[in-house]
Write a structure and sequence with these properties.
Blueprint lengths: L28 E5 L3 H7 L4 E8 L2 E8 L2 E7 L4 H16 E2 L4 E2 L7 E10 L9 E9 L10 H4 L2 H10 L10 E4 L2 H6 L5 E7 L20 H7 L1 E2 L2 E7 L2 H11 L2 E11 L4 E2 L3 H19 L1
Parallel strand pairs: 1-4, 1-7, 7-13, 8-10, 10-12
Antiparallel strand pairs: 2-3, 3-4, 5-6, 7-12, 8-9, 8-13, 11-12, 13-14
Helix pairs in contact: 2-7
Length: 291
């Protein structure tokens, strides 16, 4: 079916609405970062940059490291922005903008998210690196999609059972795994485990300033949760949304995080810039070795 103008919105230059990108300006290997200033910190390692595009919080650099063509793009913060980024990037590759119809042979994309996170386990120290093997979505995004695989995953049932009667949030959790090949690629030098994705930084991640949180024992319950030997290692605001949409659309994804806070120990990194720089170098090293 033809997609209406109100559903797939294009700018006058043929670029997709929010990202301001045209198909030729994006590579199928895409690094996403939250902070727009972090884009240049990644692309400074490129041998050359072919495209630079900036609109709102979405900054995009596409270039090459050796023969590997790749894009780094800032998503901004939160699952709502991930919804925009993943859908519009998918459209750039898999919808014909002339006919406004999906292409018969979809192009699979690879998403590698580089972000910061709060560690949940005491043994995952500040400034360490985590590769998320699965995302537990506590943000509600996938409630708006037909995603029974993610919404009815056994991890979801185990999580509800673990919380028991204490689970009274008006949010239906979901679970989506990372791509198995990417998990293997980012095994050395990374802690591996689940990531809990939340729709906010303060109350939704158990932080209480002046507004009282609804469930004071929330972090303790998440910290104690285990399924098939895997535990929740970190908290942030994008991973499960990225994994869930990628699975729906036939893409590969993994999320890599620098742990800048350890919630179990109440510690925060003394040098977040160094932690992020180490994450970028480690990720690019493994990307280029695999190409």
């Amino acid at each position: 079916m033809k997609i209406n103008d109100s559903e797939l919105i294009l700018n006058k230059d043929g670029s997709v609405y929010h990202l301001n990108l045209r198909p030729e300006q994006v590579a199928p290997l895409i690094i996403t970062v939250g902070d727009q200033d972090r884009v240049a910190k990644v692309s400074q390692h490129f041998d050359r940059i072919e495209h630079r595009v900036h609109k709102r919080e979405f900054v995009t650099h596409t270039g090459r490291i050796g023969e590997q063509r790749l894009t780094v793009l800032s998503s901004g913060i939160g699952p709502d922005n991930i919804d925009i980024v993943v859908n519009e990037l998918d459209a750039l590759f898999n919808i014909d903008f002339q006919t406004r119809k999906p292409k018969p042979s979809p192009t699979p994309l690879t998403f590698i998210r580089l972000g910061t996170a709060g560690g949940l386990q005491a043994e995952v120290p500040v400034d360490s690196l985590v590769a998320s093997t699965g995302g537990i979505g506590l943000d509600g995004l996938l409630q708006f999609y037909q995603a029974p695989e993610q919404q009815q995953h056994p991890v979801v049932g185990a999580l509800r059972a673990h919380f028991g009667a204490a689970w009274d949030f008006p949010v239906a959790p979901y679970f989506a795994p990372a791509d198995p090949a990417l998990i293997e690629q980012f095994s050395d030098g990374f802690y591996q485990g689940y990531t809990a994705t939340n729709p906010g930084f303060y109350g939704p991640q158990g932080r209480q300033l002046r507004a009282a949180v609804r469930f004071p024992g929330y972090l303790d319950r998440l910290q104690q949760f285990e399924y098939a030997g895997a535990r929740i290692l970190n908290l942030e605001m994008e991973t499960a949304a990225l994994f869930g949409l990628s699975r729906l659309l036939g893409h590969r994804a993994i999320s890599l995080s620098a742990v800048v806070a350890n919630r179990a120990l109440g510690q925060f990194s003394q040098d977040t810039r160094k932690a992020v720089a180490n994450l970028i170098r480690a990720a690019l090293d493994k990307i280029t070795k695999a190409s």
